[in-house]
Amino acid sequence: MTQILIDGSSGGGQLLRSSLTLSLITGQPFRITRIRGSRPKPGLMRQHLTCVNAAQQISNAQVEGATLGSTELTFTPSTLQSGDYHFSIGTGGSTTLVLQTLLPALLHANAPSALRIEGGTHNPMAPPFEFIDQCYLPLLKRMGAKATVHLEKPGFMQAGGGIITANINPLKKWKPLHLLDRGELITTYGAILHAHLHRSIAERELTSAAAILNWSADQFTITDQPQSSGPGSILLLAAQFEHITEISSSVAQMGRRAEAVGISAAKGLRNFLGTNAAVGYHLADQLLLPLSLAGKGSFTTFTLSKHTQTHMTLIPQFLPVQFTAAEIAPGNHLIKVSKAP
Ligand SMILES: Nc1ncnc2c1ncn2[C@@H]1O[C@H](COP(=O)(O)OP(=O)(O)OP(=O)(O)O)[C@@H](O)[C@H]1O
What we know:
Elements: E1 4-7, H1 13-26, E2 30-33, H2 46-59, E3 62-64, E4 73-76, E5 84-88, H3 95-106, E6 113-119, H4 129-142, E7 146-153, E8 162-169, E9 177-179, E10 185-195, H5 199-213, E11 220-224, E12 232-241, E13 245-251, H6 258-273, H7 281-294, E14 297-301, H8 306-314, E15 321-329, E16 332-339
Parallel strand pairs: 1-2, 5-6, 9-14, 10-11
Antiparallel strand pairs: 2-4, 3-4, 6-8, 7-8, 10-12, 12-13, 14-16, 15-16
The chain binds adenosine-5'-triphosphate.
Residues 11-14, 36, 39, 47-48, 97, 125-127, 131, 249, 282, 285-286, 307 line the site of adenosine-5'-triphosphate.
């Protein structure tokens, strides 16, 4: 098969991860240059390298350039193999991003698989575990996927040490998904996971988020996670609708005020609630790949992130699909995926 050439300079780790997923599924080899070219520190970091090594392992691929800091990689998969796999990032790098690389591929394997991934489970700039469990996976299930995920132990940056597991059954055929509206609002809630930090930090996150969203304190839970290596804290703000659940999150970091954590997550959810679009800022880029595997689908979203745009350019290099994006109302875009002519 011809090797697909990917220029990684316009994006981050997602261009690499999605290339791995698509290569595993289609069997097409690829070469990516200028990996994470738009990031301040380009090249493979631990989380990306774990994705490459994991993808290599589940497909017995031939790989060149799989070293830390590498900015070029060649990946030639052999046969996708189901199995009982264990991957450890070795730092607090995001386990959910490793999971999102492997899950769609293992749905295409010949038998059930089990995954155990160690690292961070609640990281800045990555889906927190609950986002995978409550926002992303339910939509894949509606598309026919039979998979479960489980949070065995939370892990925060920098300490890591978190564990997520997944059970994945082979999928016969992807069903198209059309998500044009959210349906009725069912409930809203806030959750703070908190490890080895003074409880007053969680309370300040809560108070600042509650003020912006006009929520009462009894809509929140604060759960101490003494088993986590921590220290760490994440604020998750969820809005569950009939057809989708959106979670806006924010992670505590050294030197960041607790109020800033609350304000950032609350503004994220408020932005979403202030529009009619079905799909939130982050879910939009993550849905493009499964929808493309189905060959057909559509959703409304309120803004086109850089991740969404780069994904729309990448996916057609591997799959015979095309995307259209149209602003159907102020702040409401309709994205359609269809077979390429
Ligand atoms: N708060 C969040 N909730 C859900 N998803 C998130 C959140 N923050 C980021 N994401 C998702 O995580 C992914 C991050 O991709 P990105 O290309 O930035 O990769 P990366 O490998 O983490 O880092 P880098 O940007 O340094 O290369 C995107 O799919 C984005 O939608």
